[in-house]
Amino acid sequence: MGCAFVKQVKHAPGYEESTLLAYETAFTIKEVESLYELFEKISHLIFNDGFIHREEFQFVLFKDSNKRNFFADRIFDLFDIKGNGVIEFGEFVRSLSIFHPYTSQDEKITFAFRIYDLKNAGFIEREELKEMVLALLNESDLFLTDDVVETIVDQTFKQADLNCDEKIDPMEWKEFAKKNPSLLKNMTLPYLMDITMAEFPNFVMNFEVVDEELDWH
Amino acid sequence: MASEPLAKTKDSQASIILGRYELGKILGHGTFAKVYHARNVNTGESVAIKVLDKERILKSGLVAHIKREIAILRRVRHPYIVQLFEVMATKTKIYFVMEYVRGGELFGKVAKGRLKEDTARRYFQQLISAVGFCHARGVFHRDLKPENLLLDDKGDLKVSDFGLSAVSEQMRQDGLFHTFCGTPAYVAPEVLSRKGYDGAKVDVWSCGVILFVLMAGYLPFHDQNVMAMYRKIYKGEFRCPRWFSSDLTKLLSRLLDTNPQTRITIPEIMENRWFKKGFRHVRFYVENDEVHSLDEPPQVPHDDASDSGCESDSSVASCPEITFSEKRKLGLPRPASLNAFDIISFSQGFDLSGLFEERGEETRFLSSEPVSNIISKLEEIAKVVKFTVRKRDCRVSLEGTREGEKGPLTIAVEIFELTPTLVLVDIKKKAGDRGEYEEFCNKELKPGLQQLKFGTAALANITSESEYDSERE
């Protein structure tokens, strides 16, 4: 019997088949393969081990691996589904899928809620909200007196905490987000509509996808 | 162009390529590419798809050069340039998805007889606007010819294949006939002589040939014998018909100058007397990746603060419950009110676009000044540096005039209400060069806005750029 040589492609640990990921997410197989190219680049920026570490994530967003950002940390923690301190390829694709323009509003609302639920308690408390406002002001070098911050938090709770229990639960958050669609503006990345285009200059030249059958005249 | 049947798959359904384009009739083909009409099955929108052989591009050894041009071209938006929507690839093919232009080729008009001078001038002005716009961004055509000049349904010019000619040009280096695909009639002498050449100068020559044809109805350099035609081009031997005005003849002699060093440049063309007649710079802006025409003249910066109201815009968030009654009386816009979550969403850490492209720089500060004062101050700053101002409710756009590779510097300023007496002013670079933005901020914007800042708040300069994008530029 003849021996067939199959080209082995070396994938990073935590790699999942593009077919499976495409089935479970908003991406096509081609787009998943393109995301793998992006994942490879990010995961080899500092540690070169096929996982995205917190420092690599920060570096991509801020051009600085030491610049810690309260909210980027939150996003990283949510992308790290297994909670093992790194983002694997499957986690990267599944998490980015939430940001796809075709992903439902409800999924985006749920993910945004998880970002703001700092203690993972299933609701957002007044103190958590204040902490996040202060983190943003600090990040932007903006200075507001404590009473102004309290006023802003109070006003928001007045609008969102419908049952006045000093907590915003998932149902209240959903109502609030639907009334204020601007809250979800960061939850959609137009680039994901066609990742092959968005990343074209980097890797259009080395796709490995079979052509659709066309009758070229 | 004769249409061919739909491309079919084995099951004889109309072929769907790249997951969402239904391929239609073939619009044209050359040695290395085919252009199809196609329809986006999701939106129903018509597009043109140019299909190239990837292997040939890889063999050309100019991948980096081609990538750079196309990366820039994807960002180019101009009313007289056929838009490149997407570039996609499979294992063996590269697909350029482009705007489909319905009005046919400009030279279809010339075939019916030469054009009136004013009509020819209008098309030439549009051609030079488009060519100059791309040159300012480092993109050259190098292959301007009749089939690349299309007309839209309003009768305006659309130049196609900008930057893509580099792809086909690099692939045609295996012989003379491939190089010119038939006629060298529009090609500059320095290209024919196979010397190194300047893309901008080559385009100017081709524009000269095109202008001659529009006005005369025939080619300036023509001979049944190709070698004889070459000789005429080398020597720059052409005669203007008697109906050409002296101004036009002078311009053509500068356009069709065989010496690229002394050949007229785009800025010089724009100052030429014949060209300038009836010329208006095309005014447009890009929003949500679409080109919008600015038919009315831009709002001139003025000192009258009470006149800073502007047309409403439904996309602005709903108004706050606490009304700024004084401003209401003046008919001034009120800023959108921010809740705590809105404020949090300003964080750069939430903006994952940095994974895919260079993010615009951003600056924000707090102010207790009335909105009208802030807008007036921005107009004042714009006046000093001769920037154009566009206003819409509590949003102001400042647009520079200096053309760089990334377009003119464009800065968007948006004002939000934090409390009844406090606003947040958000300043973003929308387009243009980073260095130019920083210089403008440091020299003009920050000093000019200093007195409007609330308390001790310092201007927060938030800049970020993804590594991949600095690689890409």
In the CATH hierarchy, what is the class of the largest domain in chain A? Mainly Alpha
What structural category characterises the helix and strand content of chain B? alpha+beta
Helix count from the secondary structure assignment of chain A: 11
Residue share in β-strands of chain A: under 5%
Name given to the CATH homologous superfamily of the largest domain in chain B: Transferase(Phosphotransferase) domain 1
Give the integer mean of the pLDDT values of chain B. 72
Radius of gyration of chain A: 21 Å
Function (chain A): Acts as a calcium sensor. CBL proteins interact with CIPK serine-threonine protein kinases. Binding of a CBL protein to the regulatory NAF domain of a CIPK protein lead to the activation of the kinase in a calcium-dependent manner.
Keywords (chain A): Calcium, Membrane, Metal-binding, Repeat
Subcellular location (chain A): Membrane
InterPro entries (chain A): CNBL1-10, EF-hand-dom_pair, EF_hand_dom
Q: How would you portray this structure in words?
A:
The complex is a heterodimer of chains A (217) and B (473). Chain A is mainly alpha-helical and 217 residues long. Chain A has 2 domains: 14-99, Orthogonal Bundle (Recoverin, domain 1), CATH 1.10.238; 104-188, Recoverin, domain 1 (Orthogonal Bundle), CATH 1.10.238. Helix content of chain A is 50%, strand content 4%. Chain A is built from 11 helices and 4 strands; from the N terminus they run ααβααβααβααβααα. Chain A has helices at residues 18-24, 29-43, 54-62, 70-79, 89-97, 105-116, 126-139, 146-160, 170-179, 195-198, 200-203; strands at residues 52-53, 86-87, 124-125, 167-168. Chain A has a two-stranded antiparallel ribbon. A two-stranded antiparallel ribbon of chain A has the order 3-4. The longest helix of chain A has 15 residues, at 29-43. The model of chain A is unreliable at 197-217 (pLDDT under 50). With 473 residues, chain B is of the alpha+beta class. Chain B has 17 helices and 17 strands. In chain B, the strands form 4 sheets. In chain B, strands 11, 12, 13, 14, 15, 16 and 17 form a 7-stranded mixed sheet that branches. A 6-stranded antiparallel sheet of chain B has the order 1-2-3-4-6-5. In chain B, helix 1 (54-60) crosses helix 5 and helix 4 runs antiparallel to helix 8. Chain B is globular. The two termini of chain B are 38 Å apart. Mean pLDDT of chain B is 72; it is low at 1-13, 169-182, 295-332 and 456-473. Classes of the chains: A mainly alpha (217), B alpha+beta (473). Chains A and B meet through helix 2, helix 3, helix 4, helix 7 and helix 8 of A and strand 1, strand 2, helix 1, helix 2 and strand 5 of B. Chain B: It catalyses: L-threonyl-[protein] + ATP = O-phospho-L-threonyl-[protein] + ADP + H(+); L-seryl-[protein] + ATP = O-phospho-L-seryl-[protein] + ADP + H(+). Chain B: Keywords: ATP-binding, Kinase, Manganese, Nucleotide-binding, Serine/threonine-protein kinase, Transferase. Chain B: Its EC number is 2.7.11.1.
